[in-house]
Amino acid sequence: MESSKPKNLKSKMEAYFAACDATAERVTLKNGSVTIRQTPYTLAGLSEHLAIPQGEILTKGRRGGDGAECKLYADALRRIGRYIVEHALLGELQYSVAAKLLEELGTGEKLPPSEEDRRIVIVLEDKEGWGE
């Protein structure tokens, strides 16, 4: 299957996110504040764009491992989850809708951690300047 090639799959996924971002428009509300509205990132949207069933995306994304394809699916699912949480916190997405979308997506614990999440960074401060 052509979409299983990691480079092609990655470009298709990026095209989906870019297409959502391209719909962004500034909307002035009645109270004078301005908000940005766009087509949200969703599992259903990604599924339709890739022509791959949602269940297959979830299964491959949760599988983890070293496979490039599974990593791409896991990264896309985390990106969708982050979008949903951020927009719910900003009040742009109702709690009940966000909860339903996150439930469909699965929790972050079910997704394998990204490479960045696996690293431990230790920062040492030299407040007294003794290291100079």
Relevant terms:
132 residues; two-stranded antiparallel ribbon; extended; mainly alpha; Topoisomerase I, Chain A, domain 4
Task: List strands and helices in order, with pairings.
Layout: H1 6-22, E1 25-28, E2 34-37, H2 43-50, H3 54-63, H4 68-89, H5 95-105, H6 115-118
Antiparallel strand pairs: 1-2
Total helices: the number is: 6
In sequence order, what are the helices and strands, one letter per element?
Answer: HEEHHHHH
Which class in CATH terms? Mainly Alpha
**Helix proportion:** 40-55%
Low-confidence stretches are none
Average of pLDDT: 82
Number of strands: 2
Radius of gyration: 19 Å
> Strand sequence of the main sheet, in spatial order?
1-2
CATH topology (fold) name: Topoisomerase I, Chain A, domain 4
For the sheet with most strands, the description reads: 2 strands, antiparallel
Query: How many distinct domains?
Result: 1
CATH architecture descriptor text: Orthogonal Bundle
The rough form would be described as extended
Roughly how many Å apart are the termini?
Answer: 58 Å
Portion in strands: 5-15%
- Overall structural class, as computed from helix and strand content, comes to mainly alpha
